[in-house]
Amino acid sequence: MTSKTPARSADPFAGLIDADDLRHRLTALTAATDGDGSDLTVRGHVLNELKAAMRDARIRVEELLFADGGGTLCAQRLSHVQDEILRVIFDFAIHHVYRVKNPSAAERMSIVAVGGYGRGTLAPGSDVDLLFLLPYKQTPWGEQIVEYILYMLWDLGLKVGHATRNIDECLRLARTDMTIRTALLEARHVWGEEPLTDELIERFDKSVVAGSGPEFIAAKLAERDARHTRQGTSRYLVEPNVKEGKGGLRDLNTLFWISKYFYRVRSGSGLVKAGVFTRSDFQRFKKGEDFLWAVRCHLHFLTGRAEERLSFDVQREIAVRLGYTQHPGMKDVERFMKHYFLVAKDVGDLTRIFCAALEEQHAKAPQPLSKLIDRIAARARRRQIQTGSPDFVIDKGRLNTASETVFEKDPVNLIRLFAIADRHAVMLHPEMLKLVRRSLKLITTQVREDPEANRLFLQVLTSRNDPETVLRKMNETGVLGRFVPDFGKVVAMMQFSMYHHYTVDEHLIRSIGVLGEIERGEAGEDHPLSTDIIKTIQNRKVLFVAMFLHDIAKGRPEDHSIAGARIARRLCPRLGLTPSETETVAWLVEHHLDMSTIAQSRDLADRKTIEDFAREVQSVERLKLLLILTVADIRAVGPNVFNGWKGQLLRTLYYECEPVLTGGHSLLPHDMRVEAAKRELAGALGAWSKDELGAYLDRHYPAYWLRVPLERKVADAEMIRAADRAGTGFSSRVVTHAFEGVTEITVLAADHPRLLSTIAGACFVAGANIVDAQIDTTTDGFALDTIYISRELPGDDDEIRRGERVCRLIEKALRGEERLPDSVARKAASRSRVKAFRVETEVLVNNSWSNRYTVLEISCLDRPGLLYDLTRAISGLNLNINSAHIATFGERAVDVFYVTDLTGQKIGNIGRQDAIRERLREAVEGEPAEEPVRRRPRRAGVA
């Protein structure tokens, strides 16, 4: 980023708007009407002059923002422009529209800026909050003036919040309404009778503010907490709200409101005099405020509206506007967002320091470090207890140093304090927090290599209490990044991806929290297998260390899994892990994505998939550790990322792999397993006649018998028999799977090359998201396709009706009653593409992942109708699809198809493979597929 320092000028508002010249021009417009500005023609000309002046001024303000980078200055300039426009309108109204030659005492008025405008700062799209202050009750003259000003402002395109009151009304309402009280707290005179404004401010301070500090503080902090709950409780959300989000401008506003109210200061510098902030704290306050205002003003200028959410589609453009550039391993937008989150972290630090100072003065009650162990903290607050170290004391629930020199005397105390805080679940004293921040430079290489320091850190990391909370405190104070420099590199690092909801450091800390939940049995219903097997692992220490390190190499040019394994091999011995433990941690870090990738994008019924995975894992213990780590990793990515379907896929992979690793799974010969599956189904269909049963058992190819579970085989048999008797040639079945969060749809239809693409198109038009598909063909030319769509409705009956609507649409499309290409095109046009992201399209044609099929893996930018276009293209290439596995990681789609040619063979010809890659790349771009050759393939059934 190119750092810009706001230019120093004797008058930062010079040249923005010439109010006197504007007044003269407006006066000249009334010459033809003898000074009567109420004429409609004159009013139109006046409005045009005001629009031009405001437009030119705003253009100049934006130019200055680019030139000097001053965010706060930009907001002040916009407020200044608004002040001048208001003054000109008011003067024109009283001199040329509603002139009063001898005004009475009641015909006076003061225009007062309140709320954000009262602070003298405005964003381009901010509301203009005004109080028209009267000495007594409203008069006809006052009503006319207010009405004229408001209509002018509205016609200028401004959003205006306004009230017309006298002083007594303002004070009466402020006593009962905290919003009005907050607005008046920032009252600022703009124009008119200034003594009125002065009287309001003086009486407000004496009769409303005095003595009501604790009440106001409690209300503002409660309001802040509610706002954080609405916006998201983490300040590290990757699409933050600049104004309302945690760590945003509103948090700084709240500090300033409370400061003005409780400490009775009129400026931020007054907090230094009051002893709340040090000068360096106040400098951080000003720098953070300036940066956030720059982001907010750029955001409003860019979007042309009051947009407060820093969404993915504007982040890159804002980064460019602010002068950020790309560095190896980090995009320009990621560098910008890292700066944003560091500022949000500073805002959080300032909030904690400020609130702790209030607690010291009994303005609010202290809160325990962790909600999980409130009772321990409550006991600690009632008495002074021993910490186990002479350098620390716990008094009234707060951990503090015994002296100012404890960190200089022994820098390991900077780690020890968090181990004590974890053990006793206590708050950290505000004075100690300040001392910690000033002492960070004491964490040197010598401290990092100290065995006791590393023992204490490992104790915190693997704590059975609440390691997530303590690690977050370590991170917020800066200790964690200093003690583990590799972690420091990912602090506030944002990944420009829709898949990741948090910064890298926040994700790592949250993943430790999820791991703790699984270990405590608090996630049993969602993750029953992980909850069960975590009790059986031999070494929980390696699991927690691997969890802490799994993404620690993000932001580097090389693969973060490989780089992370290298960091683990360097760091683990320092933490006291044995060579064997170190190698296990390194393996888990290097392969932490493998289980998720294979479960979501490989055919788990294909024996080669399981054998290859088992060969990589090598032991049941590693399999257990990898499963738990994978579940916690996905859970910590963000809300609703982990679902029952992903959990089911992971469990299936685990259960398929475990017997291979234990050596207890001996495969019967292929033919014997097929015959055993047929006998099993025959036993379940005992009511069928011998001839009917024999004919049915010959209708399926071996692949069907080996991979389909018995329950589904029985349902398929009954559905096919009913379709034969009805002679419809089409049948469908809908089954809900509530725990997995998917709905299973099975379709029986005459086989043809475009069947799967027809199903995919119908699902897309119906708004159903396919997550998996299995395709089987009968020996008599029918296809039995089973697809899984994401569940949308909570009730099974409603979800079944939804699935049946999808089935009816599929049937209409197969009968030619629904023109799918047209319907898909209309649906795709109505849904917006993800424009902010770029994902390089990669098409793999792999013959080593399966013994019987060629595997096509398409990784690309997701878009509406993608699966339909891909399946059409595959059909156009005369390929038979055996199974499809659909995964979406934010903006990136990974679609995998197991295919053969029309003779049931793999695609071995290099030229043919190149043609497949080229055609699928074209399909990703949305180019139409050619019509396939019309043949009746023996698709999934070829052995």
UniProtKB/TrEMBL annotation:
Region (Disordered): 923-943
Residues in HD domain copies: 504-626
Keyword Magnesium included in the entry's annotation: yes
Gene label: glnD
PROSITE patterns assigned: ACT (PS51671), HD (PS51831)
Residue span of region Uridylyl-removing: 385-743
Modes of activity regulation: Uridylyltransferase (UTase) activity is inhibited by glutamine, while glutamine activates uridylyl-removing (UR) activity.
UniProt key word Cytoplasm: no
Record keywords, A-Z: Hydrolase, Magnesium, Multifunctional enzyme, Nucleotidyltransferase, Repeat, Transferase
Protein's recorded name: Bifunctional uridylyltransferase/uridylyl-removing enzyme
Function of the protein: Modifies, by uridylylation and deuridylylation, the PII regulatory proteins (GlnB and homologs), in response to the nitrogen status of the cell that GlnD senses through the glutamine level. Under low glutamine levels, catalyzes the conversion of the PII proteins and UTP to PII-UMP and PPi, while under higher glutamine levels, GlnD hydrolyzes PII-UMP to PII and UMP (deuridylylation). Thus, controls uridylylation state and activity of the PII proteins, and plays an important role in the regulation of nitrogen metabolism.
GO molecular function: [protein-PII] uridylyltransferase activity; phosphoric diester hydrolase activity
PANTHER family: BIFUNCTIONAL URIDYLYLTRANSFERASE/URIDYLYL-REMOVING ENZYME (PTHR47320), BIFUNCTIONAL URIDYLYLTRANSFERASE_URIDYLYL-REMOVING ENZYME (PTHR47320:SF1)
Lineage top rank: taxon: Bacteria
Residue span, ACT domain: 744-826, 855-938
InterPro entries listed in its UniProt record: ACT-like_dom_sf, ACT_dom, HD/PDEase_dom, HD_domain, NT_sf, PII_UdlTrfase/GS_AdlTrfase, Polymerase_NTP_transf_dom, UTase/UR
One of the GO biological process terms: regulation of nitrogen utilization
Species of the source: Stappia indica
